[in-house]
Amino acid sequence: MRWDNLKKEHCSLARSLSVLGDRWTLMILRDAFLRVRRFEDFEQSLKIARRVLSERLALLVDEGILAKVPYQERPTRYEYRLTEKGLDLYPVIISMVHWGDKYYAGKDGPPMIHTHVACGHDFKSVITCSECGDPVPARDVRVRASATPASRNRARTAATRPHPKSQPSRA
Amino acid sequence: MRWDNLKKEHCSLARSLSVLGDRWTLMILRDAFLRVRRFEDFEQSLKIARRVLSERLALLVDEGILAKVPYQERPTRYEYRLTEKGLDLYPVIISMVHWGDKYYAGKDGPPMIHTHVACGHDFKSVITCSECGDPVPARDVRVRASATPASRNRARTAATRPHPKSQPSRA
DNA sequence: CTAATAAGTCTTGTAATAAGACTATGTCAA
DNA sequence: TTGACATAGTCTTATTACAAGACTTATTAG
To answer: DSSP for A31-71?
Structure first.
């Protein structure tokens, strides 16, 4: 299979990977989340070939994941900032980080500590169910194709219902 | 930077990506989660070059993400099954799937529906804080290097404390 | 002996990447 | 007005990875 064809696959993972699934894109986005914004800063931080960095940034801007915004004039210079679509990738990145923390940290523990400012604690990410709010291990999930209109309706309902923890049914 | 050097980086995302960050590995793991287990089934499902599939499976076995277990003898044939370490990648995959659902689904909605068997509902994944159980958007997270012993202790506490929803403080 | 099945390995042409030189645009200081 | 500096790229070349498909090995069935 050619890489370009992945975008047209009938699978959301394939479509996501057609954008994110190369050697550098997620590293670039990690830096973006750490507030790196300029071409040369990405280059020095990642030690990436300039040609590849240039291509990837253009792709990410094209996809609406980063936005190119001017930060000075004469000469006009641009920096790259995460859009909402880009910020929505945070679950992907933090899940990967915490998987790496669990399996590849040395004896000193994970290299970076994440603090949830809303509650003030250092934390690990936990995947939970949008419907009941409980943690969801892989074995508790069943997958099926969204073939019928009925199943598509159920899916849309789930997608738009707020997380239970955001609006408890009994305050 | 060479790809091999990523494994030694002082960053859990880099270390994770040194295993997962190529064009095919996450697609192979998606199939594994969908209960594909045999070489030829992976090949036909993914239309991946056999050489590359062979390399990737060997790497994943090497990393302890897949296990090669015999399913028949004369001749001995092996299949590839997710280990616990592999199952722990589910948050990464489902986060990517739901991001793809959100931004790349056509008018018919997402192609696959995920059901949480514990509660019986179709659901979307939500990243929550291991400490307070609330959803965690990117802007609510601060990151710092785990430099001091004190901060490392706090990190370990967070890593081993059960999720609030698993053990409610007031039942 | 021949075909079929499963799980690979090997070969060859094409595409992507790494490293670093080169270009474009404009500032500032001598 | 020349030269050094800064930022953000593009271009070139050698190396590496991938795609497609033929070939190999081991075993059973007919």
So the answer is: HHHTT--SHHHHHHHHT--HHHHHHHHHHHHHTTSEEEEEE
Contact B127/A126, CB-based, under 8 Å?
yes
Beta strands A125-129 and B125-129 are antiparallel
Structural class in CATH, domain A3-83: mainly alpha
CA of A50 to C1' of D6 (A): 16
Residue B70 has, within 13 A of its CA and on its CB side, a CA count of 5
pLDDT tens per residue across all 171 residues of chain B: 777 778 888 899 999 999 999 889 999 999 999 999 999 999 999 999 999 999 999 999 999 999 999 998 888 899 999 999 999 999 999 999 999 999 999 888 999 999 999 999 999 999 999 999 999 999 999 999 987 554 445 445 555 667 877 654 443
Q: Which amino acid is at A137?
A: P
Q: Tokens 């679509």 sit at which residue?
A: A85
Q: Does A149 touch chain B (CB under 8 A)?
A: no
What does the domain layout of chain A look like in residue ranges? 3-83, 90-160
State whether A88 and B95 contact (CB < 8 Å): no
**Which positions in strand D are less than 7 Å from the protein's CB atoms?**
6-12, 17-22, 26-28
Distance CA B157, CA B161 (A): 6
> Please, which residues 11-50 of chain B have a Cβ atom closer than 8 Å to chain A?
11-17, 20-23, 26-27, 30, 33-34, 46-48
pTM, entire model = 0.91
